[in-house]
Amino acid sequence: AQSVTQPDIHITVSEGASLELRCNYSYGATPYLFWYVQSPGQGLQLLLKYFSGDTLVQGIKGFEAEFKRSQSSFNLRKPSVHWSDAAEYFCAVAASGNTGKLIFGQGTTLQVKP
Amino acid sequence: DVKVTQSSRYLVKRTGEKVFLECVQDMDHENMFWYRQDPGLGLRLIYFSYDVKMKEKGDIPEGYSVSREKKERFSLILESASTNQTSMYLCASRDGLAFSSYNEQFFGPGTRLTVL
Questions:
Q1: pLDDT at position A62, please?
Q2: Mean pLDDT on B18-30
């Protein structure tokens, strides 16, 4: 069965430091991959998505993610974190078989230290 | 601006009560979704609807039903609430083909339901 794993439940970084959030997926073919962010008290917002083509994807708010087929990974990165980036981040993969569904990872909570 | 609204941010109900969670979107999207969000489990799909009166079971439909009588409104119903249904419930909508994940899902702010 398809799955998405976010190995880090909580991450704390200092403001201005770089950030990498890990995401691993299991899927046979080329996956559709997404990163969403949930700020406190808010719904989820799409940061970026990968369907095909260039494996380095740029998103909103200065985030980027790199698709690595050999590692079954789609890690999210940001070169310099801002206090407003504190939130919960979800990686998701489109379920196989054209179901229109997404499978979400467990989420990673990012805390930003001043 | 795109908007998905949910009728309540917080709800407290008693075991055995019938509970209605309402979701409205103003984007004329064909597809609407109900998820529950639990710590350590991420989001899990309960039901989705790809058209008025059409629905598909998600991964955890047991104990829930849904209703979509109008395109903009999608209701989640707990026929007899139980304590294990205490959770955050998120509604989302998406444009495009029913069985394609290409387009972005837009989420509401969520309803935190507590069942006592």
A1: 96
A2: 95
